[in-house]
Write a structure and sequence with these properties.
single chain, alpha/beta, Rossmann fold, 2 domains, 8-stranded mixed beta sheet, 5-stranded mixed beta sheet, 17 strands, globular, disordered C terminus
Length: about 425
């Protein structure tokens, strides 16, 4: 099949990474007035989630060490809804894969799905909380503040969402997602978070902001008082740093991998323009993407392929890696089943592309625009079709790295990817 040649480009974003993440966490904890109210000898639950957050092990360790320096007894609880196949051991394993376990943290990991009822919101939502966290002397959560993949609002992903979906464990997550179908997830997160704060158990949270390169850019030790307003301010800040695909319209987007460690939805819906309130390509200020081809699962997603249902085409290798139990639990917990659907799939990359490209709405496939990325976290290095170059020429953040070339298929009909390390080739077969 004839199609556009691809050109390697780099999309340059400002670098905002902290020079010493551990020191920045320690400084924030030292300066926060709420940390000084914790009595020595207290047992403090430190909540950590399932996302692939850069330096999460360093941040969690710095928090634990701070509390220990104050003669406080910290322990770590996994703050996850259905990740880890919704089992206590599975969630502990997720943390261990990120380098967070008893030995590396110097604090015990207390993983359980047992919850207690702690209140009811004005809408009538029963609010649950991890029993071990509730029975502690205080709770703080470590989480990334960013845009959410399923809704828009002044308060999206962050400490409030962790208080709801995470601290509520699988039981709470199922209930909250059901309510989200009625009143919207934004209202659920705000209302349930408020109810958790009213228990008096929440001390605060370590809010993590990442730049467009997904490096740790800022950390903020937020106290329970005024937390919603603080999170809203940080969300506005981090949204201003957001990276997008550098084109207004893309016929075919190729992704080397999807996974829960990349996004809660497997791929960032506000990059690929899926999962919006009115169907595909309904998010504001996000390029339109007409077809998506996914090639692999990330190594840190434990077979959870949630989000594959947003793709139009998949390689057989991805389908063979799917843990359908984990994927379907995730889909059912979210009350949205379509992200767990299996897309059309074929045994080679060449077959997948040759089948999906003619569905892009152009009689001549050489007119189709194509963009190839590793995943939705890594948008610096891309391959773009030649017909996108005139549009990219007016973008000062784009730099062309090399000449156009045909898609690099190997002898078996699979692509040789250059995204393992930017500029280096690898086979993803």
């Amino acid at each position: 099949m004839r199609m556009q040649r691809l050109v390697p480009v780099v999309q340059e974003f400002p670098h905002r990474s902290l020079p010493d993440v551990s020191a920045a966490v320690r400084q924030q904890m030292e300066q926060a007035a709420w940390t000084r109210r914790v009595v020595p000898g207290s047992r403090i639950a430190v909540g950590v989630g399932s996302r692939g957050i850069r330096n999460m092990d360093t941040i969690a360790k710095a928090v634990v060490d701070f509390w220990k320096s104050r003669k406080v007894k910290p322990f770590i609880v996994p703050v996850m809804g259905s990740h880890g196949a919704a089992t206590a051991q599975g969630q502990a394993d997720v943390l261990a894969h990120y380098g967070i376990d008893d030995s590396t943290m110097g604090a015990p990991i207390a993983s359980s799905l047992e919850v207690v009822h702690v209140g009811t919101t004005p809408e009538g939502i029963d609010v649950s909380m991890d029993r071990r966290a509730f029975e502690s002397d205080g709770v703080m959560l470590c989480g990334r503040v960013k845009w959410h993949t399923d809704f828009e609002g002044p308060l999206e992903s962050g400490i409030h969402k962790m208080m709801a979906i995470g601290l509520g464990k699988w039981e709470g997550a199922k209930r909250y997602h059901s309510w989200a179908l009625k009143i919207g997830m934004g209202q659920v997160v705000r209302s349930v978070g408020s109810a958790v704060l009213q228990t008096g158990k929440m001390l605060g949270g370590m809010a993590i902001l990442e730049d467009a390169h997904h490096h740790t850019a800022e950390v903020h030790a937020l106290g329970a008082d005024g937390m919603a307003e603080q999170e809203e301010r940080l969300l506005r800040r981090v949204k201003s740093w957001k990276a997008n695909l550098p084109a207004e319209e893309i016929d075919l987007l190729i992704l080397d991998e999807i996974g829960k460690d990349i996004s809660g939805a497997g791929m960032d819906t506000k990059v690929v323009n899926r999962g919006g309130p009115h169907g595909p390509n309904s998010w504001r200020d996000v390029p339109a993407v007409h077809r998506i081809f996914i090639r692999n699962l990330s190594g840190n997603t434990y077979g959870n392929a949630i989000g594959m249902g947003m793709a139009d085409m998949a390689h057989d290798r991805l389908v063979h890696q799917v843990d359908f139990q984990a994927t379907w639990i995730n889909a059912l917990t979210s009350s949205v089943t379509s992200p767990g659907f299996t897309p059309l799939h074929y045994p080679t990359d060449r077959q997948c592309i040759e089948r999906v490209l003619p569905t892009c709405g152009k009689l001549d496939t050489t007119e189709c625009s194509v963009m190839w990325i590793r995943n939705t976290l890594e948008l610096s290095h891309l391959l773009v079709s030649e017909n996108l170059l005139p549009e990219l020429a007016s973008n000062p953040s784009i730099r062309i790295l090399g000449p156009p070339a045909e898609l690099p298929f190997d002898a078996s009909g699979n692509l040789v990817s250059r995204f393992e390390t930017p500029g280096a080739a690898r086979s993803a077969a």
